[in-house]
Amino acid sequence: MTARILIVEDEARLAGLLADYLAAAGYAADCLGDGDTVVPWVRANAPDLIVLDLMLPGRDGLEICREIRAFSRVPIIMATARAEEIDRLLGLELGADDYICKPYSPREVVARVKAVLRRSLAVPAPTAEGLVLDTAGFRVRSPHGEVELTAVEFHLFAALQREPGRIFSRAQLMDRIYDDQRVVSDRTIDSHVKKLRKKLAEVWPEGELIHSVYGAGYRYEADPAK
After folding, report:
1. Do 66 and 138 lie in a common domain?
2. What is the pLDDT of residues 129-174, one digit of tens each?
3. Burial of 82 by CB count in 10 Å (0-12 exposed, 13-18 middle, 19+ buried)?
4. How far is Cα of residue 66 from the mean position of the Cα atoms in its chain?
5. Burial (Cβ within 10 Å: 0-12, 13-18, ≥19) of residue 184
6. Digit-coded pLDDT (tens) for 54-102
7. Beta pairing partners, 5
8. In sequence order, which residues have a C-beta less than 8 Å from that of residue 40 and are 6 or more positions away?
9. What's the predicted TM-score (pTM) here?
10. E strands of 71-196, at which residues?
11. CA torsion angle 96 101 107 108 (round to 10)
């Protein structure tokens, strides 16, 4: 089945060009140019992925992303010419799956679309501890229940969990959760880990899953069940 991509972009020429590249890659593409029309369209049409511009007439991309996340886990790639760190982090905290900065190459957007769709369609598999990482829904499930994570929190946990016992520096974790080599502070990673630990405690009450290694970074290791 052909994946349906919604392009939300008020520059008609750019939206049309991107739609042509996506069509050439085998996707069905729809375009919207007004922020006020996006949420009703998504509710009615259920696209497989959204390329969402940050600056739009009507409602802006962050507001749209926040409302969509209230009812859907459809993958969202946010596009923006505003490269300030706070906008990027805020967008990801609201549930965006990836960021791309303008001006961009349509080929790069197609590559990002393929990568995000591939992650979202991955089949959840249980970990050795019986946890299930639900890539499509950014959830972690266990016999104790389930918890929803932000996109950044999910990718951070997945990076650590894939290699139990390995110590990751903060810089290494940044490389794994941010695709575009953005610069963020060590405190940003520490903040994400703090929030992630609090959420994971709801589904793994037996003990810590993410351990701090003084002066080095973080590692994943399940504490023995009590």
Report:
1. no
2. 678 888 767 888 888 888 988 878 888 888 888 888 889 998 888 8
3. exposed
4. 13
5. middle
6. 889 999 888 999 899 888 878 899 898 876 655 565 556 677 888 888 8
7. 29, 49
8. none
9. 0.61
10. 76-80, 98-101, 132-134, 139-142, 145-148
11. -60
Domain hosting residue 160, numbered range: 132-220
- Which residues are CB-contacts of 121 (< 8 A; sequence separation ≥ 6)? 135, 136
Q: Are 209 and 200 in contact (CB under 8 A)?
A: yes
pLDDT at residue 115 is higher than 90: no
SS3 label, residue 30: strand
**Which of 100, 120, 140 is the C-terminal boundary of a domain?**
120
Query: Where do we find the tokens 């906008």?
Result: 87
pLDDT band at 127 (very low <50, low <70, confident <90, very high): low
DSSP H stretches of helix in 33-97: 38-45, 61-69, 85-93
> Is the Cβ–Cβ distance between 212 and 189 less than 8 Å?
no
207 and 102 housed in the same domain: no
CATH number of the domain at 157, please: 1.10.10.10
Q: Does residue 142 lie within any of the structural domains?
A: yes
Confidence of residue 225 (pLDDT cuts 50, 70, 90): very low
User: Among all chains, which residue has been given the structure tokens 């590249």?
Assistant: 21
- Angle between helices 38-45 and 61-69 in degrees, nearest 10: 30
Q: Is 62 inside any structural domain?
A: yes
